[in-house]
Design goal:
Elements lengths: L1 H24 L1 H4 L22 H12 L3 E6 L2 E6 L2 H10 L16 H4 L9 H10 L4 H25 L3 E3 H17 L6 H4 L3 H10 L3 H12 L1 H6 L7 H18 L10 H8 L12 H31 L2 H18 L4 H6 L2 H13 L6 E4 L4 E4 L2 E3 L4 E4 L1 H5 L38 H18 E5 L25 E6 L2
Parallel strand pairs: 2-7
Antiparallel strand pairs: 1-2, 3-9, 4-7, 5-6, 8-9
Bound molecules: protoporphyrin IX containing FE (HEM) and 2-acetamido-2-deoxy-beta-D-glucopyranose (NAG).
């Protein structure tokens, strides 16, 4: 008797799920939006842990060649948009309706839910305004000084490691962590030289892939309800504790000199804990921690992956490398090797090289938003409030209509303006990367120092840049294999 009761319940549940599934499955067809049939469990996310999501985005773009494509994040319908016009509408023109990201951290985790990367309005507006103070031109001067000094350490390190093949990613993560530690947290270390340091311990832990962390990130990105249910943390607990200890020690040591104009990220964060003139409330320590974590996580790995690709591309493109070297030499003769800020400002080609590398390998390959209200995409499509929308940056950046011969490294294409909203490695609109200029300073100093001091050569039998493995398990577009080059001293 009990058995039959149970069986009936199970059958009812299955039937309910099936009816729901039939509805889910026909969602985009009913709206006349092109799609690939979803998987009953994963929706469109069948690639997870097997293929990088950036490649999935690119594939959607290239196969459908359609203004937009409907996908499913598990059972939730989401829209991928593929044209500059729609990108502009979502990111800029109608940004009022798309201020929030879809990705969400668990409310049980303040470090995730309060941080600038993931937090939602109304909290986001206030935090963004305060943290932006750390990224004004005058504040970035001190970042320039730190990046120039650490780039010299980078040169020393490469000399020490010799002409052997050097793994780029680890070395550059040491460097970007070092710059962040010294410039933002005022915590000096010799991480670029030694690979060791207090903040480096954190970034090493963050970088380590484990299945639970992988699932945690998937939940944050694609299934926020799951992140909530399982109380997923943005950072491993050890990293959070570590960062908290560092910040507390710093805050204690500094508390006296707080009345003046804040100069570094650390000082901005400290001031956020106090009341500001125009704002009633002071932020909690958790919120301050969360911003430090956001800046660290948003910055060090993206920048180190970019440096890896830039160096690797230059090693495989001798003509472009020579051109960069010659331009840097001219600028160096004019400004002197102590004035890296001047050298960099005078070398237009370094800008083109970096832009082109970020076009081919944008670390964050798509831009995540969610519709606040129902939204008319065009005359034939209105999406419902709550629909996630992904702007397909990586797709447009390799569209031959915008970038002829898109898989060829050709920095010269950036000597002319690119078509607006076809190139967005740092995003656009109110949620554009807050660290864009900070990142450019970090990138330019390292590349200039390296190219002025070394000729960079490919290792024998190493893959061409466009054929190098991209990580399969992570969500960001980053190398999936150990990319190495040879450095030959020019002196
Ligand atoms: C090459 C390096 C970098 C790349 C490619 C990159 C890319 C991006 C992208 C695509 C976004 C999302 C923009 C959008 O949705 O419109 C973003 C947001 C963000 N980035 Fe970066 N980033 C880089 C470096 C940095 C650095 C160095 C920092 C910190 C110092 C940083 C901090 C942030 C933060 C806090 C956000 C969230 C901003 C918000 O939602 O208000 N990023 N970044
Ligand atoms: C870094 O190395 C230099 C030179 O070896 C040394 O003088 C300095 O104290 C070191 N700094 C830290 C924070 O360990």
């Amino acid at each position: 008797m009990l058995f039959f009761l149970l069986l009936t319940i199970i059958i009812c549940v299955l039937v309910m799920f099936y009816i729901k599934w039939v509805k889910v499955r026909s969602y985009w067809a009913e709206r006349g939006v092109p799609f690939d049939p979803p998987n009953p469990f994963l929706g469109s996310l069948t690639f997870l842990m097997r293929k990088n999501p950036s490649l999935w985005m690119r594939d959607i773009y290239e196969r459908h060649r359609s203004r937009y494509v409907g996908v499913w994040l598990f059972w939730r319908p989401a829209l991928v948009v593929n044209t500059p016009e729609l990108a502009r509408n979502i990111l800029v023109r109608d940004s009022g309706n798309f201020r929030n990201k879809f990705m969400t951290a668990s409310t049980s985790d303040p470090i995730g839910s309060l941080n600038l990367l993931l937090t939602k309005d109304p909290a986001w507006t206030g935090i963004r305004k305060r943290v932006s103070l750390a990224f004004t031109s005058s504040k970035l001067k001190s970042v320039q000084a730190v990046a120039a000094a650490k780039s010299l350490d980078l040169v020393t390190r490469i000399h020490e490691e010799g002409v052997a093949e050097i793994s780029l990613r680890t070395m550059f993560s040491d460097y970007t962590t070092d710059v962040f530690s010294a410039a933002s947290l005022e915590l000096d270390s010799n991480t670029t030289l030694t690979g060791e340091g207090a903040v480096r311990d954190i970034t090493k832990e963050i970088m380590e892939f484990s299945l639970p962390r992988g699932l945690a990130w998937c939940a944050i990105f694609f299934w926020p309800d799951m992140a909530e249910l399982f109380r997923v943390n943005f950072l491993p607990k050890k990293s959070t504790d570590f960062l908290r200890r560092i910040l507390r020690a710093k805050f204690k040591a500094k508390s006296v000199e707080l009345n003046k104009d804040p100069k570094t990220v650390l000082e901005i964060l400290m001031q956020m804990m106090r009341k500001s003139q125009d704002q009633e409330k002071a932020y909690s320590e958790d919120c301050i921690m969360a911003q430090a974590a956001a800046l660290l996580v948003g910055g060090y790995e993206t920048t180190s992956s970019a440096l890896t690709y830039i160096t690797y591309l230059l090693a495989h493109s001798p003509r472009q490398q020579e051109k960069l070297y010659q331009e840097l030499l001219v600028a160096e003769e004019k400004h002197g090797h102590h004035n890296m800020e001047g050298v960099i400002a005078d070398c237009q080609y370094i800008d083109c090289v970096i832009k082109e590398a970020l076009r081919m390998f944008p670390p964050m390959a798509w831009l995540d938003r969610v519709a606040l209200h129902d939204y008319k995409v065009d005359d034939s499509l209105t999406i419902e409030a709550g629909t996630p929308v992904y702007v397909n940056g990586v797709g447009m950046q390799v569209d031959p209509e915008f970038y002829p011969d898109p898989y060829t490294f050709d920095p010269e294409r950036f000597t002319a303006e690119s078509i607006p909203y076809t190139y967005m490695p740092f995003g656009d609109g109110p949620r554009i990367c807050i660290g864009k200029r900070y990142a450019m300073i970090t990138l330019k100093n390292a590349i200039a120092a390296i190219i002025l001091n070394f000729e960079v050569l490919p290792c024998p039998n190493s893959p061409k840049p466009a054929e190098a493995e991209i990580q399969k398990k992570g969500l960001f577009l980053m190398p999936g294999e150990d990319l190495k080059v040879k450095f030959i001293s020019r002196k």
